[in-house]
Structures are given as structure tokens and as C-alpha cells.
Amino acid sequence: MSEFISINGARENNLQDVTLRIPKGRLTVFTGVSGSGKSSVVFDTIAVESQRQLNETFTWFVRNRLPKYERPHADALEDLSPAIVVDQRPVGGHSRSTVGTMTDIHSVLRVLFSRHGAPSAGAATAYSFNDPSGMCPGCDGLGRKVQPGWDRILDPARSLAGGAVRFPPFAAGTWQGQAYTNTDELDPDKPVGDFTDAERTFLMRGRPGSKVTVNGTGGTWTTEYEGLADRFERLYLKRDLSAMSEKTRELVRRFLVEGDCPECGGARLNAAALATRIDGHSIADCSAMQVTDLIAVLRRIDDPVARPIAGAAVTALERVEATGLGYLSLDRETATLSGGEGQRLKTVRHLGSSLTGMTYIFDEPSVGLHPRDVGRLGDLLLRLRDKGNTVLVVEHDPDVIALADHVVDMGPGAGAGGGRVVFEGTPDELAGADTLTGRFLGRRTAVKEDPRTATGELWVKGAGRHNLRDVTVAFPTGVLTAVTGVAGSGKSTLVAELIAAHPDAVVVDQSSIGVSARSTPATYLGIMDTVRKIFARETGAEAGFFSFNSSGACGACEGRGIISTDLAFMDPVTTTCGDCDGRRFRDEVLRLTVDGSSIADVLAMTADQALDFFADTGVRRRLRALSDVGLTYLTLGQPLSTLSGGERQRIKLATRLHRTGAVYVLDEPTTGLHMSDVEGLLALLDRLVGTGNSVVVVEHNLDVVAHADWVIDLGPDGGRDGGRVIFEGTPRELLTARGSSTAEHLRRATR
Ligand code: ADP
Ligand code: ADP
Ligand code: ZN
Ligand code: ZN
């Protein structure tokens, strides 16, 4: 078997005949500016080809049921091993998917409780919230339940006659509302908040046999009194909401709240399962603890029969801790995890596997990690390698680059200006190499000496969400503020509180853009209308003809250029449309040109090339915004679905520039950025502040922290051990702060 993966003449996306030999059984890091072609080598060439070759080994019967991967553009790709991609796609999942189920630690706990808990509730499934024998009957194992929001429905300060019932169909004066104002049992003029327990119970639940007289169109009649709660539940909760009119549904929704299930208190399990204890803890208690605490509880188990199972759980939990996620609890729904947290949890699964001879591919695994935790992440990557696997990592973090056995530096620029291997060798050799990455590696971080002074303050007062401990803090306005702290310390939670307190904040995050498969930078920036009009004016054809969702579009792919096959259990697979060769339009449309370019040619232009092509000032202004955020290498027609999280965030920013007096909030904007791109980003943030805005970033990148005017550091640790502001001040003051990991790492970077 060869000791190298060999790539000859790779030409996927912007790659310019890339030829590479990647050592097997080693850790190789791919570096280079954003858009230089790292992903094109690692994901679009190596990962796709190994999946394709793997599929070829199956019989045609199986193959016909597998996704069809297109052979990547390359002369030869040889000696690949099966690849596993561990990326930052959201783990997502439904509400039954939790950290515990995803890592399989929940099933180990179930075995532990069914064999060694007392009293035992039965076989293992009796402790599973995904199984009828274990799930809480009140919420079917979901832990949460939609209930009437009584503080919205009833105003305790008012009397029944004075409008205490705020739900319009039951309000005083309506035919349904009469029951509550007319009953002899309640004083219609007494504020509901002053009711005795008995009166309140009667209002809500009534009493069998109790009657009330009401007036209707047909006259006056006496009927059974039905309690307010009983009536609301019967009419709106026990019925299928989808059978009601949209208007009614909207109305009812405003009076419903989702909260912990009252039967199980959110624990998802039935009473028998919850009664079982080990060392005084139920399985729900164990699932709600943060991982670091659960490890301590399980270590105390000394029953010789239970110990091995507890030990297995501890081993798995320690892997979670080692990825810097010790602050998570097993009952945390995976849908609420960030991309970086999800990627690290996926890694945990692979660390437990005994496969060897695989190729593991990671996409910027340091995202979301404080410099303090990057070391531990590196250990995990090395452990995967030492099991006999090849580990390929796309990364910008100098600490991860330093761990590599081999570095491949792509460049020299982005897009058409990149696509070549500019350096190959060890990290030490790279530090001396004359490439962008090489030059940046040896550089020291410089702390800002002349921070701007604030123009005012935005307060968050008494914040207590998640792990925040009654945090009161001022965010200065008119400056660049960095919110720092280890993962799980509460940065996102605090910033969410800031956004909630100041609704006019411009939030620029990495979440998906929520656009259709036909969306491109051109449609997203809003220049497509003008482009179509220019084409119509110059060619005499109808403007609609040049639209992806018109008769001018290729019929086979409906203007997408690609055909996407959705697979139930895997990521969808896309292939280029054979009818239009990915050009998205019909031939008649492609024959219509402006200055020699068809609409497809225009969509293949980068922002820079398009700036040379278009004279229209509106179009040019928007194209310049794209270069302002460092996305010059994107073509106008590249599907937005192919953008990374960092690129999505920057394209959003491009459409939200040019405001004044706004508060911009960005979550780790350096994601996907090379050290040299970070300079461009900082220049952009400076311009935003310079034009009268306030900018708040959640960041780990020490160059950004050092460049900020103000730093708010949370900690000291993650989860229960975090949630406090441990430092507020300028970066220079941070250098001398004690007890802060951020300060410690900033000191190291500036030395
Ligand atoms: P990196 O990983 O270094 O940031 P990429 O490999 O993602 O760079 O991108 C290299 C070039 O290929 C860029 O110009 C990018 O816009 C382009 N590119 C990447 N993916 C696609 C795609 N699916 N379709 C068209 N162009 C793409
Ligand atoms: P950071 O942004 O510093 O990584 P977070 O604000 O995401 O930290 O998390 C702070 C704490 O709040 C952690 O203990 C985390 O597990 C918890 N937390 C965050 N989001 C949620 C959520 N949606 N549900 C429950 N707990 C959460
Ligand atoms: Zn329940
Ligand atoms: Zn097509």
C-alpha cells in the first residue's frame, strides 16, 4: 500500500492543475486565504472521490440505491482511503435528539439504571424517553408542553366584569364570557387576583352540577357552568389546531406558552423511571448535570458490578470534556448547539470508534474555541492520527498549524488568483517561507495603544438567562467591543440579552440565509433586477427571460444548474445539470449577449470583474460592498448554499453596511478567515465605527481582541463555573488582569 494519497492535475472550482502527495497516517493542515482553494482540494476533491470509489465497490444493486457522486475534475486521484467528513453543518435534529442520545452516553446510563438503580423500573427501554415504556405520558417524552398562558389570558388586577379575561372569545360581554360574569358563585366586581383558592378553582374548573344563566339570540337559558381552564383546554388544546382557521390559530397561539411538562418537570420520563435512583440521583438528574459534574457522580459508584458500566460512561464523558464541552448537559437538545459545538461532538463519536486506516477531514475545528481549549482539541486530532488514521484539517489557527506533521499552503490569492499549492512542508519550514501564511505566522500581536472613547452606554441589567449570574454590564457605544471568554462562559447568551434589550441592533450572524436553492450573490445583493433590465434593453428580449425562475431558465434543473438528490440519512448530493452544463439557462437565452457576454457569463464573473463590466452606479455600489467584506472572489452566480458560515456572515454584512448610529453585533466574524483576511475585516469594522456605529463582536481571535477599544471578558470557566464578567476594560488593561484565560493568552501572543 502506498504511503501517500496522490492527487494529479486537480481542477475542481478554482484549482489550477494541483498535484499533491499527502502523507498517510499523518496530520496535514491546509492553510491559505479564504477562497484560495483549501475546501476545493479537501472536500470537493478528496472527500468526494473517496466516497465515489467506495460506492463503486458495491454491486450495481446497492449502487443504484446510493447517491451518484460526480468524478471530481482531476487527471488522477490515487491511494485514497475511506473518508469521514466532520464539518460544522448544524447537528440539528428533532427535539428527541440530545447530547446524550447523539453520543450514545444516554444508552449507557440507561443500562446502568436498569441494572443497578433502586427500585428498578424494568428493562433498559424503561429509561428511554424515546420508548413508550419509559416516556412521560404527559408529553410523550418531549419534556415540553404547550399550555395556556394564564398570565396572558387573565389580568389579576381586573375584575371579571372589568375585563380580567383578556382572551377575546371569552371576554366580558361576549356570549361565552357571560358564564363568568353571571355566575352566582363569583363576585364579578372583585379583582381576580384577590380571589380565594376556592373561588379561583371554581373559575378555572367549575364544580359538577353548577349552573349559570346566559342570554343569547334565542333568549335566556340556563346551562352547565364550565370552568375557564376546562373550556379553553377543550376548545383549543384537545383539538387539532390545524383544523381551525388561520385567524383562530394565530389568536390562540398568542395565548399559549411552551414550557416544561408539568407531569415530569421537563425530565421526559415517566414516574417509575424517575423514581429509580443511584446514589440519590435519578437518570433525569444525571442528564441535567453538566458533564464535568456527572463524571464526579459516576466515579463515586463503588458497587463492583455497576463499576464497569459507570466506567464506560465516564470514558465517553471524558471525551466530551476533552473537546472543551464539559459545560454541556446530556439533556441539551442538539438543535440548540452552535456549529463548532456540533462539530466537536461529532468528533467525540469518532474518537470512540476503533476504525483505523480512515481519512478524517475537519473544517476549521477551532471555531468557537478559546485559545485555552485549542491545545486539548489538538490532542484529540493527534489521538485520531495515532490510531492509524490520516487526518486532514482546514485551519487558520496558528496553534493548530503548529501541531501538523505536514502543511499544504494554498494561494497565493483567492478565486482565480489562487488555486495553487504555494508551500508544502513542516510548520517550522512554513514559518520561514515567503508566503502570506509564512509571513503572518512569525508575527506578534500588537495591543491597541489609543483606544477610542465611548460616546455612551448600552446597559444589560440583571441578566440571568442560562448560566449568567445576575450580570449587569455596560456596552460602550461608538467603539469596537470584543466579548471574550472560554466556550460556554456565556458570551452568546449575554449578547442575546443585549440584542433583546436593544431591538434595533443589526445582528449579523452565521445562520443560514433562508433563501431558495436559486439564490446567488447577485440575487441576494439585489442587483439581478437591474442586470435583467440592462440585458432586456440591449438585446430587445423580455427582462423576465433572464431570470432563473422564468421560461428562459433550463427546464431540466429549473435554473439551478445542479440536480440535488435528497437522501434520507445522509447529506444531499448534488450533480451538475447535464442539459445546461450548469449554465442554468436555455441556449436561446445564452445566445443573447451584452458587450460579448451572455447572462451566464455575467453570473460567472467575480465581483471585481463585474465592476469592470457594469457602469450602473447602483450595481457598482453593491458590488463594492461585496469587496468591502472580502468576498471579491465569489462569482455573482455561485449558489449561496455553497457558502461557509463565515462567508454567509460576511455577505449578510455586505447588505447591511452604510448605516449610521446602529449597533452591529457579530458572532465570531473571523470564522474562515486567514490571518491576512483578519486585517481586512478589522479595517471594515473600523470603518463601521468611524461612520458613527457601535460594533460588538464575540471573538476568540487575539488579533481582534487586541485591536478592540473595549473588552468584556466572561468566565472564569464554562457552564456553571462561568456566567460572570471577570474583566471590563481596554486591551492594554487586560494584559495585566489576573484570573482570566483571555488575559493569559493575550500576554503570550504579544510577547
Ligand atoms: P477556501 O476553502 O480556501 O476558502 P474554496 O475551495 O471554498 O476556498 O474556494 C475556492 C474558489 O472556488 C473560490 O473562488 C470559490 O468561490 C469557488 N467555489 C467554491 N465552491 C464553489 C462551488 N460550489 N461553485 C462554484 N465555485 C465555487
Ligand atoms: P459561549 O457563547 O460563551 O460559548 P453560551 O452563551 O453559548 O456560551 O452558553 C452559556 C451557558 O448556557 C452554557 O452552560 C450553555 O450550555 C448554556 N446554554 C446556551 N444555550 C442554551 C440553550 N439553548 N439551552 C440550554 N442551555 C444553553
Ligand atoms: Zn412530561
Ligand atoms: Zn440545467
Automatic annotation (TrEMBL):
Entry-linked Pfam families: ABC_tran
UniProt entry tagged with the keyword DNA damage: yes
Key words of the record: ATP-binding, Cytoplasm, DNA damage, DNA excision, DNA repair, DNA-binding, Excision nuclease, Nucleotide-binding, Repeat
InterPro entries per UniProt: AAA+_ATPase, ABC_transporter-like_ATP-bd, P-loop_NTPase
Signal peptide (from-to): none
Protein name according to UniProt: UvrABC system protein A
UniProt organism field: Streptomyces thinghirensis
Similarity comment: family membership: Belongs to the ABC transporter superfamily. UvrA family.
